[in-house]
Prior knowledge:
The protein contains two helices and two strands. The protein has 120 residues and is mainly alpha-helical.
Amino acid sequence: MLRLLRPLKGQRGVTLVELMVVVAIIAIIAAIALTLYQNVQQKAKLSADQGVGAALRSAVAIYYGRKNGNFPPTKTVLNTLVSPSPPVFQCAGGGYNYDAYTYVNNTGLITLGVNNAADC
């Protein structure tokens, strides 16, 4: 009869050193993965803000075309042009924030500002 649970002859369990090496390898892999994940999050937030900037740029271009070459007078008016809701920023000011970008109404220039990229 075949015994399924035979005692292992001459073999012992895992040593403490081997266990520590495995834990160290897992810790290194986790540290690398965490930094890569944080970079991906930051890039995604910056991309979202670039999308908001593109929406604002489109709103200015549409206004300019419909108003015979006149730009929107203020950024408050510009926020009302972006529908269905005002712009929400991830990095540039966080949330709905008038100070997240500057707008020059005689040229139509929009500049997004990121004060601290680490908070992004």
